[in-house]
Amino acid sequence: MNIKITVDNNPQSILLSQQLRREIFGEEQGISADLDIDGLDNNSFHALAYDKCLAIGIARLALHKNNRAHLARVAIKKEHRGLGIATQLIKSLLVKAKELNIIEVELHAHDHLQKYYESFGFTDTGQTEQVGDHPLIKMCLRN
Description:
The structure is a single chain. The protein has helices spanning 11-28, 33-36, 85-99, 114-118; strands at residues 3-8, 44-51, 54-64, 68-76, 104-110, 123-131, 134-142. It is of the alpha+beta class. It has a seven-stranded mixed beta sheet, sandwiched between helices. The longest helix is centred in the first third of the chain and has 18 residues, at 11-28.
């Protein structure tokens, strides 16, 4: 499998990202569109993973004031999970964050993913947040 990763913020990538999230989060996982569509897509960079011409995974880096950003919306189509695609997407967005001189990247992780995100250098801030039925751990990476 030859996976290609793109990172950009053009309208086509935003639309494709939203379509994949609707499919993965909404249809497969039953997550409400209200929790996904938060108005940050236009001020974000979207990493998309392709297998041949088929988009199979996404992640988003939402830009905030003071050179800060939020990494979120990581999702891989079910049949492509467990192949390291999420890792490729996250690494590509962390490279983009460095290019943009982002000084801090924040994310909110499920507790079972804490060690995974620590492998990228994220640290637990000691804060938690409840999103829908999901308790999430706030983590930060300082560049």
